[in-house]
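2024-03-11 09:14:02 DEBUG pipeline.ingest accepted 1 chain
2024-03-11 09:14:02 DEBUG pipeline.ingest length=294
2024-03-11 09:14:03 DEBUG pipeline.predict start
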Amino acid sequence: SVVKTTAVTSAQPISAAIQGRYLYITMLGGSLQIFDISAPENPASVGTLAISGLQYSIAVSGRYAYIADFTNNLLRLVDVSNPSSPVSVGTVSITNKPYKVFVSGRYAYVSSASPGGITIVDISSPTSPVVVSTLTSTDLTGDLYNLFVQGRYVYVPNYTLGMLVVVDVSNPTTPVQVGVVTGFSSPPGIAVQGRYAYVVNYGTTTLHIVDISNPAAPITVATTSGFIGPSRVVVSGRYAYVSNFDTNKVSVVDVSSSTAPVVITHAITVGTAPLGFALAGRLLAVMNYTSQTF
């Protein structure tokens, strides 16, 4: 159930991450906002960093936040060790406008707007991040709104071409595309857990479950319908949570059977135009783009 709706400051929230007691939110109109959510029923604003332009996504790891700065074609690194006073400490240029950033170990993985491609950045020196490789291919051409990293593989839904692309990044300086599966329709969101990828399709308003146990030959094993404008998906344990941008609701799907998922509800009402998600334990933070709340 919804425990609290909180307004953000003068901008549309688009992406979020949770680490420890803090929620980190990036905005369409610029800025990073940080909230203490140790009491979820009473979130408290603790810090803000003004950033010009659209900050499309955020990841947080350790003392740093990593922000895909769409407007300025940058990956931006912010020291958040003092949440009340976040400080931008480093940037690196991304060739095409960055949509999604995902951090794993010493690398940040960034997907881009058309003409697409993924960029891998060495973030071991936060003040001097370095691009170590960029991968482009026919299958990675278009708008790549999202990506997910698990182990040695990056999973990239191609919104423009309607496919899921698998990339081996065991050598970050030489990423290699190893697999692809088609049959999607404008997929903007993905989550990966174990041997399955969960992909939402805005075009056909469905959730696909994809068996990725063989990265060279991923295969869709189930499709679930009934969503309206699905935009993001997160998975924890036996449940998948989907934001429905067009109905202001969150759906819950039992995915304990990968081949026969069961919709629990499509009717959890949140704010207007839910987009970004952040999940930690029992707490799901939903970014409501139009109503400027979470």
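2024-03-11 09:14:41 DEBUG pipeline.report The radius of gyration is 18 Å.
2024-03-11 09:14:41 DEBUG pipeline.predict end
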